[in-house]
Amino acid sequence: ALLDGHRAVGQRGKSSLPHARERTLIAVKPDGVQRRLIGQIIQRFEQRGFKLVGMKMLQVSEDLLSQHYSELRAKPFYPSLLYYMTSGPVVVMVWEGHNVVQTSRTMVGTTNPTEAQPGTVRGDFSTHVSRNVVHASDSLEGAKREIQLWFQGQELLNWDCCDQKSISE
Ligand code: ADP
């Protein structure tokens, strides 16, 4: 039932619409919150044309983090990563839109800020890989997994953005 509005548009012959409903998980990490960058980061995603469908501020548990970063458990920096990510609150968001996973990675910049292009979040706001301000899911499957991990279904809102048709078709 939640998809009815979109199906109605789809019936007009556009097949790319489900793609416009792609979702990704973005988090402002504790250093980003401490440095008062939440607003600037949200602004970048809004102005790019993505739709915010979920957002909350929380103190992350080690349990959630160990699931989120399960692939990194064997890395030497893993203990310090857990310490960093639990050092203060994070703001976690779900953004929706055409190719949002890949576009967000481009907007966020490379993992190591030394190589991050100016104009990206990391390229504008960070210098060190261990304090890189923001998280963005790195694949469609990763995004699905992370969204399920961080959010309950009812915390994500299906809502119509009045400018959606001007932004993607
Ligand atoms: P990304 O966050 O760009 O997807 P990874 O999944 O490889 O990158 O790593 C997750 C996070 O772990 C990074 O964002 C960063 O905070 C931290 N990290 C990665 N590599 C290092 C490193 N060599 N030293 C310290 N922290 C690191």
Automatic annotation (TrEMBL):
The family this protein is said to belong to: Belongs to the NDK family.
Domain Nucleoside diphosphate kinase-like intervals: 21-158
Requisite cofactors: Mg(2+)
Binding annotation for ATP: 29, 77, 105, 111, 122, 132
GO cellular component, one term: mitochondrial intermembrane space
Catalytic reactions on record: a ribonucleoside 5'-diphosphate + ATP = a ribonucleoside 5'-triphosphate + ADP; a 2'-deoxyribonucleoside 5'-diphosphate + ATP = a 2'-deoxyribonucleoside 5'-triphosphate + ADP
Membrane topology, as annotated: Peripheral membrane protein
GO MF, one annotated term: ATP binding
Biological processes annotated in GO: CTP biosynthetic process; GTP biosynthetic process; UTP biosynthetic process
Cited function: Major role in the synthesis of nucleoside triphosphates other than ATP.
EC numbers: 2.7.4.6
Protein name stated in the entry: Nucleoside diphosphate kinase
Listed transmembrane segments: none
Organism of provenance: Anabas testudineus
UniProt key word Transit peptide: no
Subcellular location: Cell projection, Lamellipodium; Cell projection, Ruffle; Cytoplasm; Mitochondrion intermembrane space
Alphabetical UniProt keywords: ATP-binding, Cell cycle, Cell projection, Cytoplasm, Kinase, Magnesium, Metal-binding, Nucleotide metabolism, Nucleotide-binding, Nucleus, Transferase
Active-site residue numbers: 135 (pros-phosphohistidine intermediate)
